[in-house]
Amino acid sequence: MFFQVIDILGTIAFAISGVLVALEKRMDAFGVLIIAFVTAVGGGTLRDVMIGIHPVSWMTNMTYVYVIVASAVFAVLLRYKINYLRRSLFLFDTIGIGLYTVVGIETGIVAGLHPIICIALGTMTACFGGVLRDILCNEIPVIFRKEIYATACILGGLTYFLLRKFVADSNFIFVIAGLIVIIVRLLAVKLKISLPSLYKDKA
Fold it and tell me: Picking from 74-83, 97-106, 115-124, which range would have the lowest pLDDT averaged per residue?
């Protein structure tokens, strides 16, 4: 039940982040809804396809569809309340990657996969929806820039498996690992920490 709650919260966060990007690009209502869907379920769909879950999770549980539609309507109606678009997008996107990282890792564990593969699945689940969102909105995906993004997911994944050696409460592990992702991402942006660039800045 707790795992499902985490999954739903991640879906809400990513759906809202998709709506904010679509609104910034001045898309129509259909476009906004499509971007919300792609952002919310893109990573999970890729994960499920790769580990052989068929049909993919959200197609067999209409709760996800209802949650995405409701989140999209909520974000559109209250867009001026949650605005400062860039700041809100960053917040919801960060919450989304934190929650989806642990969801992807747990899915990999259930499938009996190696911890390294589980961490890769968690990172993929967290990041791929945002990649699709940015590509469809004609943006360079954040994960392909020098910002700390996928790195935060990997650190959260490592924390998850480290805690499993010492802590029995899986709910506690979910929360701490997800928080690590969120905190690392927030601190990286706040302190302007980034991965080394391969390109020299022009004078």
Answer: 74-83
